[in-house]
Amino acid sequence: MKSSIIVFPGSNCDRDIAVALEKMQFKNKMIWHKETKLPKSDLIVLPGGFSYGDYLRSGAIAGKSLIIDEVIKAANEGCLILGICNGFQILTETGLLKGTLLRNKNLKFINKDVQIKVMNNETRFSNKYKKNELLKINIAHNEGNFFTDDNHLQELNDNNLIAFKYCDEKGIINEESNPNGSLENIAGIYNSKKNILGMMPHPERMVDKLISNTDGINLFSSLLN
Amino acid sequence: MKFSITVTLKKDVLDPQGKVVQNTLMNLGLNLKNIRQGKYFEIEVDEKDQTKAEKNIDVMCKKLLVNLIIEDYKINKL
User: Fold this and answer.
1) Does A60 sit within 8 Å of B64, measured CB to CB?
2) Which domains does chain A have, with CATH numbers?
3) Nearest chain B CA: its distance from A177 CA (Å)
4) pTM for the full predicted model
5) Do A149 and B13 touch (CB under 8 A)?
6) Most buried of the four, A16, A53, A137, B57, by CB within 10 Å?
7) Mean pLDDT, to the nearest integer, of A118-136?
8) Is the predicted ipTM greater than 0.85, yes or no?
């Protein structure tokens, strides 16, 4: 499986995701944002970080970079796209995913391991997980408060497009287990064709027992399945 | 020709920064009802026709400056 990671000025999780993908035997290439051609890829990753220092809005400037036209083209042709953290923010700014990520409700940058629940395990990104499986995954963001309009929220619920929700260790989804104020505790969503996943938690940080845990591995092995 | 653009959060979007600024002002003993924080841009364009210029600025707002899901904007000629 071939993957491409798009690197922007200010990306800082690009190497982590490269390590995770290579560990899972992906043939990966790093692609600078000024490129105008993408190598043939089965998976394109928009990594976490602070592209362009979060100027204007998180992901807004990166969402207009030269390579993005190619990413949109590939996405429309069915290529798998994964946006993590700043990558999720970029996906919403390009319009590939609807909704947006607002400033965290408590105005704090949150960096901690949180519990999330797998809401849909029937996608290319999640088929190795069990439905309602609980994962402990790191979040590290200032703007992770997912917001969208009522129509889109309805569409997400009706079509099973919510990928993950924040919950507590027992799997209970409520306000106490919502770290950033996201609508309905949403931590990640799919587009209608489910070939694009945007998520705030960092699965690439959870692929090695030595430094964290391995709860993120099945996301990558799902892609290989 | 010069224009100003004011970008504000839509009415039903939570504005935690505005809330904190409001609370701080109130702690200073200042009286106020509500604050909404926003962004301000000044743009100069090389165009003599005002209608054309405004159209141009509007495109800039829609393409990049404003996130239409959560923000409203107003264009004023300076």
Assistant:
1) yes
2) 2-224 (3.40.50.880)
3) 19
4) 0.92
5) no
6) A137
7) 98
8) no
